[in-house]
Amino acid sequence: MPISPAEAKPLKEAVAEFANMSASLRALEADELWCQAEGRTPGPNLLALLDAARIKWRKAHTRVYKLIDDMTEEKP
To answer: How many CB atoms lie within 10 A of CB 75?
Structure first.
């Protein structure tokens, strides 16, 4: 299915944002695992950052898949 340039630009931006959110979330999750591996409890700042990153990741994920759904939706 061909994608028009008008459709491609928002999708590329959404995918780039999703990739950035995924990388940020992975880094924070790695910090959490590092704390646990050392026998320490992750601090409240790290846990707050993780919560915020998960919310941003979910929003970026939803945006990407909504754009894809809209592009592949059957039009009468």
So the answer is: 3
